[in-house]
Design a protein that fits this description.
By secondary structure, the protein is α+β, with helices and mostly antiparallel strands. It folds into two domains: 107 residues, Diaminopimelate Epimerase, Chain A, domain 1 (Roll), CATH 3.10.310; 119 residues, Diaminopimelate Epimerase, Chain A, domain 1, CATH 3.10.310. 15% of the residues lie in helices and 41% in strands. It is built from four helices and 19 strands. The protein has a 17-stranded mixed sheet that branches. A two-stranded antiparallel ribbon has the order 9-10. Strand 7 and strand 8 form a beta hairpin. The longest helix is centred in the last third of the chain and has 13 residues.
Amino acid sequence: MRIPFRKMHGLGNDFVVIDARTAAVAMTARRAASLANRRTGIGCDQLIVLEPSAIADVKMRIFNNDGSEVEACGNAARAVGLLLGSTQTIETLGGLIRSAANADGVSVDMGAPRLRWDEIPVAYAMDTLDMPVGWEQLENPVGVNVGNPHVIFFVPDADAVDLARLGPLIENDPLFPQKINVNVASVAGPDHLKLRVWERGAGLTQACGTGACATAVAAIRRKLTGRKVRVDLPGGPLVISWPEGGTIDMTGPATLSFEGSFEDADFPA
């Protein structure tokens, strides 16, 4: 039996999307990692499985390229929003989100950020706006959960940070019981940020939608920007807005690269 898939990306953060709403597809960590392998599989940062939902238009399951299943992915939400069109509600492990295709790309309502230490989560109580921790030159981050956990470090030059080395150290620190996504950002203007992200379970990627949302929230909380922010990632820009007392809106492009299929038996679950 052959299983169809779509290869998609949001600003270079790429996905294999499998629509299992009408015909179930078994997915395990082993199978997800095999499909995501860029040498022996299809290759992607994250593998997405769409399933029926009892509470939304669709359920989106998200697997990192190491096979771990995670709660949220903003770029994947835009890709799914483009695929389904119109306005959709999407169930994720991180909660319900809403997508809408429009002339500017796809907008996603990511919900309200979670800001308490036990919502990030971290191992013990602390101020998440100015966390009293550090790893070499990266110090005093902001903690934000936008369906998945993030720490954000504001630095003079995001490009100068050796994130390939420091990212995994911070991701796997015992301070973070569910591991952590690591963001380094620099302020480029009153409403403009530059951002690089080490994604939990995926490593360095061209773009991270939840990272852009979390970083914008952190900048707004620290009064570094206004409430509508352009976030430039290596793969391109996203626009994030967070009105006072409201939810986070993320707008940016999503692209269908190609369609294909694979033999079920070639990637055992």
